[in-house]
Every structure is written in structure tokens, then in C-alpha cells.
Write a sequence for this structure.
């Protein structure tokens, strides 16, 4: 896979929106959209470093799709990674519902412990 596909994949994995990546990196949303939608549009080295850092991957991974880099999330338990995958597929409304449910469950846990 190339830069475009790897960037799309990492955005999906992280659950980050293009506008959030733009805010974090300082790269204009229009420019990021070009990287995601244009065949041969890739950032310069400085831009690639900003994007990689924001997504928690290496520049090498974004460009080639492979390297020896280990994600920070690699130590996340399997069940939590499963929840992250589900979360990334939810729309805003359902994410709000999920947060409400988790807060209710958290309150129940505190009551049961007391």
C-alpha cells in the first residue's frame, strides 16, 4: 500500500477525523484531503513527520506500510482493542450513547464496591 492508503487506514484505526488531524498538525484540511484523494500527492518530510507523530506511527510506516515500529497501543489488551475497533465504526450519535452507557456502568461499579 502507498501513503494514501496507509493514511486512510491509520485515520480509521485511530478514529481521528481529518479536521482533527489538521488541528493537531497545523496542515490545512484541504491539503490533507489531497493526500487522501489524489494518487501521487504526498507531504514533504516535515509534513509527513507531523502526520506520523499525530497518528502514533513512523513516517516509514506511512510511506511504505511496513517497518519495525511498535505502536504505543500494542500493549492494549485484546478486549480493549476490540472496543476501539467498534468505536471507530460508530457515528457521533452512537458514540454519545456509548459514553452514556459507560458512565452508567461506571456508577454501578462504584455503588457495588461501596
Amino acid at each position: 500500500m502507498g501513503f494514501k492508503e496507509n493514511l486512510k487506514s491509520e485515520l480509521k484505526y485511530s478514529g481521528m477525523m481529518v479536521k482533527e488531524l489538521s488541528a493537531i498538525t497545523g496542515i490545512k484540511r484541504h491539503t490533507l484531503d489531497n493526500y487522501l484523494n489524489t494518487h501521487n500527492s504526498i507531504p514533504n518530510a516535515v509534513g509527513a513527520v507531523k502526520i506520523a507523530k499525530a497518528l502514533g506511527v513512523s513516517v516509514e510506516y506511512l510511506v511504505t506500510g511496513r517497518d519495525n515500529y511498535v505502536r504505543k497501543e500494542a500493549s492494549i489488551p485484546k478486549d480493549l482493542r476490540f472496543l476501539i475497533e467498534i468505536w471507530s465504526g460508530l457515528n457521533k450519535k452512537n458514540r454519545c450513547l456509548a459514553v452514556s452507557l459507560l458512565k452508567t456502568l461506571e456508577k454501578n461499579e462504584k455503588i457495588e464496591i461501596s
Q: What stands out?
A: Helices lie at 3-14, 18-25, 29-37, 45-55, 59-64, 78-88, 92-113. The radius of gyration is 17 Å. The chain has seven helices and no strands.
